[in-house]
Amino acid sequence: MWLRLNIQSAGIVAVAVLSAFGVLPVSDGAAAAVSIVPAPQQLTQYDYTVTLDTTWRILVSAGDPDAVFAAQQLRGYLHDQLEIVATSYMFTGNRERCIVLDSAAGGLSGRAPSAETLARLGRQGYLLEVFPAAIVITAQAAPGIFYGVQSLRQLLRASRPASWSVPGLRIVDYPSLPLRGIHLLGLSGTLQEMRKKIDFLSHLKINAAIISEDSFWELEKDTLVPGTRNKFVLQELFAYARQRHIEPISELQSFGIAVALLRKDPHAGEGVWIRDEPFVWRDDFAVPQRAADIPLKNAGFELAGRGCFPSGWQVRGKPGQADWRRDTSTARSGHSSMTLSVSAPFARPSKELCFPDIAVEPEALYQLRCYAKKKTVAVGADRDFAVRVSQIDAAGNVLAAHYLPLQYAQDSWSALDLNFQTLPAAVSVQISAACTQGSGTVWLDDFSLRCLDGALINVVRTEASDICVTDQNKTVVYEEGRDYRVLNGELRHAYGVSHNRPTRVMRLPQGRIDPGQVVLISYDCIVPFHPAEWMTPYCPSEPRTYAVFSGVLRDVIGALRPRYVSIGHDDIFGMCRDSRCRKRNLSPAALLAEDVQGLVSCVRQIDPAVRVMMWDDMLNPWHTGGVPDFQVSYSGAPGATGGALDLVPPDVILLSWWYDAQDLQKKMEKTPALYAAKSFEYLGAGWKEESLQLWARKVEGQPACRGLLVTTWDGWDNNNAGIRALAEHGWSAR
Q1: Do 485 and 628 belong to one domain?
Q2: 84 within 8 A of 73, measured Cβ to Cβ
Q3: In this structure, are 110 and 168 located in the same domain?
Q4: For residue range 400-420, what is the model confidence (pLDDT) as tens digits?
Q5: How far apart are CA 698 and CA 174, in angstroms?
Q6: Where residue 160 falls among pLDDT bands split at 50, 70, 90?
Q7: In this structure, are 229 and 337 located in the same domain?
Q8: Element counts in the chain: helices (H) and strands (E)
């Protein structure tokens, strides 16, 4: 066994050997040759180089398992060539040709750091000294020893087989921010590949990982590693990360991105309220009276108009722009389509393709469908390259705008749907398409518009929401089982309107409903209001929502014992849409605050020591939380959600993300002061190096800031530069 316990009682070399070197620092130019990521706070380089060979040993305290583990890591990096000597704390033996991993008291090295140095180190700092005859890493706690080893690993250079060189130097190092985290959008690859990612992060002294992973919701399944329950895989990975001083944080995405929860109970989704839709009984089944399909003239661009434009459509914009044209060489059906081509680099918005106003009913649910394909569309945000529907009132004012981002188009023809509910004052809608940013080419064809009110698609049936059938005067409420029978349809995430079998309502002959009678049917149905299937929110007024969430939360906390749990809560697209919320008459801000309060309370009941994290965009008044009509674009209720900030428990840690350059320079500037004033701790989150560097400069010296977070929305492999930037700027804000 290569780990040898060597309790020594007599020393050959005096303690003074390590403290009596008369070495002088070299010039700054020579010191710059040393490269460590992240760069140390203080580095003094000396005019000598130390050579290590297999006669060297790693000296570590036998009573410190964390230090022994760090020694094992170092030995592995040196191809298992050096012996580890686990010895007594007050070591009096020979320290020559030793790499000493020591506590702050200096029991192994024989020399304790000054009180001033110790004060700076904290729990994560370390003192690394490379002497001519020994190397000493001193720290106050296990993370510091581990990080000192990571720096030494970067300094070592192979000089010949079983021999390494390291420059003489002294490093005093400690992080500027306590947390340096990465947000991982799912776990992928083999177990060994997952471990390698953890090793990579630990080597950069990154010490937190927020993991957004559906397997948290399915601990008893084997979706991560076939043949092994997710619970055991996650327990192994969490233990592996913690041993390397990375705190794994379970993110149970909820509210806005509730896909995992809604797969467990699709009736918990936020629906839309269909009220008093008229049906008539034909062959004992309820049939909607309102026509479903809305005729659109020249919806497939088959009829030519003036110039290169289709009949019945308009193209608006500055004269001379030729972005849009009728294409007779490409079509989804027939022989024509419309194509929009924007050249790079992008310099101006495109013209706008418009369809004249279409009469609609107020408070009705509609679906606009078009077919699209693309040839490279580079977009900066969802709304930049899009089809739009604008609701118009009787005076011609735009009441609301809905967006169908074309970034979701494929390189072959595919259907894209935009669902929306009209406002009480709406009398018409206008269809348009344009590019406001980005470049590329898209084709559009075969537009259609239909009313979904009578479709009985994706009907919610819970104790809080169910089908209601009344007579036309709403004086008689008919009873299921006595007057009618419900043949349940399919309700499953992702709530496809075209694929899920609809619900049917059948008249019972012995009941009070006459054949041919007109009745009013009200119900909640769930349809996507965003083309990304994961963007359907849950209903915060449905008790089943919290029954599912609390059960999963209890399982995760019980199995993984996390210090933190993230509840997500970014990008909530559509609040107060269905009857469960609208009947309570709460504003979006009040509803959001109530939801967060409930989840925090649930966490505290399970384990009071667990801290809750959440994204801040829906709370931040300079982010989405400050946009009064943000929910209206997704057929939700008006009202900014930022008011919830004053009602959220102040011990929630906010994850504040800013990516856009304009946001970084203006809006981000106000966030730290706001959160400090309201006693919130927060992490500054970014994507690329620019945002992380600006965050680091802004929060330096701010006690409310717990650290920095890098996101990997575009994948781990596409953001190595961002991960390294987090390591640099999160460790030392410069």
Answers
A1: no
A2: no
A3: yes
A4: 999 898 888 889 999 999 999
A5: 19
A6: confident
A7: no
A8: 14, 34
Cis previous bond, 345, omega within 30: yes
**Can you give the length of the chain in residues?**
734
CB 256 within 8 A of CB 249: no
User: CA distances (Å), 532 to each of 27, 103, 335, 435, 637, in order?
Assistant: 57, 52, 30, 19, 21
**CATH code (residue 690):** 3.20.20.80
What's the structural domain count of the chain?
A: 4
pLDDT at 88 (0 to 100): 75
d(CA 328, CA 667): 47
The mean per-residue pLDDT over the stretch 413-432 comes to 96
Find the mean pLDDT for residues 637-657. Answer: 96
User: Would the CA dihedral through 143, 145, 150, 154 be positive or negative?
Assistant: positive
**pTM for this prediction:** 0.91
- What's the maximum distance between 2 C-alpha atoms anywhere in the chain? 107
Provide the residue range defining the domain that includes 429.
293-451
Q: 7-16, 464-473, 626-635, 654-663 — which is least confidently predicted? A: 7-16
Q: Do the Cβ atoms of 106 and 24 come closer than 8 Å?
A: no
Domain end residue (candidates: 525, 558, 576): 525
| Residue 407 belongs to domain with CATH number | 2.60.120.260
Q: Do residues 601 and 718 share a domain?
A: yes
Give 532's DSSP letter. Answer: S
Residues 445 and 362 in one domain: yes
Q: What is the pLDDT of residues 98-117, one digit of tens each?
A: 999 998 877 787 778 888 88
